[in-house]
Q: What sequence folds into this?
């Protein structure tokens, strides 16, 4: 087995590529005698002349040409390994900060759990806020990853859809509307409606839906969380429109029902949102890849 060093191979590759000892020395930031010494040592180890010199010109011998081909492939592979090693070092002890709107908390922690299991050294934090609070954090660039369903209309922001987000109209399971088929939204405008607080993305969607159709919204109560809304709906205080992800697989177990409304469910998406010019950390990039690779599990669940 030959005892050739990585440094010798790098030096040989540079001399062969640049066809010059002095230019190789310059590129590698070493002196020319150092380059000559590396090549001499390499030739001794291989036991063949690799570089021939005639006057000032350099020529690769047959063995030199073979080694040059091997070197190019080998150094390329080594470079890839160095990149992977650097990424792994970064992933051993990185930090990941994810910020999401309240509705995504029904699936996101599970994905984060799977990610933590795969990368136990990464310190993960999750901020759960309404849309306005999330936009404040985004403006201050406080987190690595932002998830919301109503991205801002801002050319400096990139929003990439990654998961379906169906919106459904819900009522308590004893509400007489539950047995009705093909309800029109118009027929629901007089129903007492429970709505999220100002600054909520869900509220924006609900208000826009009714406004675009020229319908009134009969707001009975404003509540600051999806859970509180569900409890109010179960308690018979009114109906509401929420993301399907806020409900369990079988809503009747929670004493809730999804109403049969024309044109429903409303098809929307969850978006990954970030400033267009943001350079993501290795950890954040890895998380996004992980999220996209595992998201199918969640899209098939409901
Ligand atoms: P919200 O966002 O928590 O601000 O209502 C939910 C959404 O955008 O669907």
A:
């Amino acid at each position: 087995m030959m005892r050739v060093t990585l440094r010798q191979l790098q030096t040989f590759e540079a001399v062969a590529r640049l066809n010059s000892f002095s230019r190789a020395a310059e590129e590698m930031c070493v002196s020319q005698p150092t380059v000559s010494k590396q090549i001499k040592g390499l030739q001794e180890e291989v036991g063949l002349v690799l570089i021939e010199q005639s006057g000032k010109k350099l020529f690769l011998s047959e063995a030199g040409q073979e080694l040059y081909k091997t070197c190019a492939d080998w150094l390329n592979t080594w470079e890839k390994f160095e990149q992977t090693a650097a990424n792994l070092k970064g992933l051993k002890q990185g930090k990941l900060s994810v910020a999401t709107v309240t509705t995504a908390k029904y699936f996101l922690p599970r994905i984060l759990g799977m990610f933590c299991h795969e990368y136990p050294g990464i310190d993960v934090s999750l901020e759960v806020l309404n849309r306005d609070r999330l936009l404040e954090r985004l403006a201050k660039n406080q987190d690595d990853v932002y998830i919301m369903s109503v991205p801002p209309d801002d050319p400096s922001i990139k929003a990439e859809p990654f998961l379906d987000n169906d919106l459904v109209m819900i009522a308590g399971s004893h509400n007489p509307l539950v047995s009705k088929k093909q309800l029109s939204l118009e027929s629901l405008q007089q129903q007492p409606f429970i709505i999220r607080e100002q600054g909520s993305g869900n509220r924006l969607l609900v208000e826009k839906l009714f406004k675009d159709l020229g319908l009134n919204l009969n707001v009975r109560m404003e509540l600051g969380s999806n859970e509180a809304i569900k409890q109010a709906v179960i308690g018979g205080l009114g109906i509401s429109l929420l993301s399907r992800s806020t409900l369990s697989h079988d809503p009747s177990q929670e004493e809730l029902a999804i109403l049969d409304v024309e044109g429903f469910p409303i098809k929307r998406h969850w978006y990954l949102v970030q400033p267009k010019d943001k350079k993501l950390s290795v950890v954040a990039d890895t998380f996004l890849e992980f999220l996209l690779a595992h998201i199918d599990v969640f899209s098939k669940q409901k």
Summary: The chain has three domains: 6-82, 90-162+269-301, 167-258. The first strand starts at residue 51 and ends at 54.
